[in-house]
Design goal:
By secondary structure, the protein is mainly α. Helix content is 70%, strand content 2%. It has helices at residues 10-15, 26-65, 74-92, 116-141, 145-166, 174-177, 183-201, 203-209, 216-242, and strands spanning 2-4, 18-20. Strands 1-2 form a two-stranded parallel ribbon. Strand 1 (2-4), helix 1 (10-15) and strand 2 (18-20) form a beta-alpha-beta unit.
Length: 243
């Protein structure tokens, strides 16, 4: 039962399942839309964090399994998890509702956050991030361990920051979502990349996180590995939305 919050009696309010504080039935529609938006954003944030962490874990696990030096040291893992990933994940919580969110059928009450499609996303994104960082680490290992560690560490940070753009929508490409629709996310991505630059080039932070300066060619290699993660995802979403 639904009761009116202004004109309804106390008996009606206490016996009803829902009380409309403004006596407006349109508020129910708005509440459903907001609930769906929050559910979607929780799902986006959780899937994003798990994808990034799976890639990070995979890179560390395979490097140990192959008898290689540690691809990441503990303080770098803390930096990725507590500074870079957490800031971008929080920015997803304020993502606007999808345009077709009210055309979707009601979801089952027992539906889980991670369904079959989410596990497929985790395996694809996590696998790509982990293997990309590992290949770059092995590529630089003959030159210098510290340089290889720094480039692999930075690769994981950049991949995670670009990955968050893929989770602004599960179905629509980025150009349809709108680059400026969530300024908090753009601010989070820019700030975390800025912090990573400080880690690589500031002597004080270099000593703490065991990094060394990187050349332009190193950054070009990282971008060449990172951009396909974003481009391939948008091409798939564009194809999916069209057909």
């Amino acid at each position: 039962g639904i009761a009116m919050g202004i004109r309804g009696t106390d008996v009606a309010k206490s016996a009803s399942d829902l009380v409309l504080s403004d006596d407006n039935f349109a508020s129910i529609v708005g509440a459903i839309e907001e609930g769906r938006r929050q559910y979607d954003n929780i799902r986006k944030s959780v899937t994003y964090l798990l994808s990034s962490n799976i890639g990070e874990t995979l890179a560390v696990f395979v490097s140990i399994l192959c008898g290689l030096p540690l691809i990441l040291i503990p303080v770098q893992i803390l930096w990725i998890n507590l500074v870079t990933d957490s800031v971008t994940a929080l920015s997803l919580s304020v993502e606007k509702a999808e345009k077709n969110i009210m055309q979707e059928p009601p979801r089952p009450i027992n539906q889980t956050i991670l369904d079959k499609s989410a596990f497929m996303i985790l395996s694809i994104y996590g696998g790509y991030i982990g293997l990309a960082a590992l290949v770059i680490f092995i590529f630089y290992l003959d030159t210098s361990y510290q340089l290889a560690n720094t480039v692999a560490f930075t690769t994981l940070v950049i991949l995670s920051n670009l990955l968050v753009l893929n989770f602004r929508s599960f179905d629509r490409p980025l150009y349809k979502v709108g680059f400026l629709a969530n300024p908090y996310l753009l601010l989070a991505v820019i700030s975390t990349i800025g912090m990573q630059l400080a880690v690589v080039y500031t002597p004080f932070l270099q000593d703490i996180l065991n990094t060394v300066p990187m050349a332009k060619a190193d950054w070009a290699l990282i971008l060449s590995v990172s951009l396909p993660l974003l481009i391939a995802s948008d091409l798939y979403k564009a194809f999916k939305s069209k057909y």
